[in-house]
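Sequence in, structure out.
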Amino acid sequence: MFININILAGLASMLFGLVYMVLTLQIPHATIGNAFAPAIFPMMVGAALFVSGIVLMTSELKKERSGGQTAEKIELKFHGFRTMRFENRMILITVLAALLYALVFNTLGYVLSTIIFLGILLFTLNGRKKWKTNLLVTLVFSVAVYVIFTQFLYIPLPAMPFVDL
């Protein structure tokens, strides 16, 4: 049995988004101001995940019906073991980079750990030939998000251990 990988990803995104939205309803209400304020952004993230899953699934279903090029298909063998045929390298690198990010986040702070995480992902996607772009994106994104959160939104993020940003 062959299943389109994008349809499977769309279903997973929809399910994760739905569960995420339900769990945001359990966030404690604020005692000052709008009682639902702490749950607004997480609810928007869950809704975005759900809608993204729907869009991905419907676009792949339309491609399949029209005979256009669709995503790779994975083969699921239900008699015995499951085997999947697709590139696992990016998934493995992303998972390992995320684990590293989680391990060093509090120690190195937001900026350095995010630079390392994004750097790993961008160098994996773009390769070494685009090293200037990779470095520029990681530096600008990490510092800009840090400044936006700490200076404008007043949301503290772990600072670098040796620089008082």
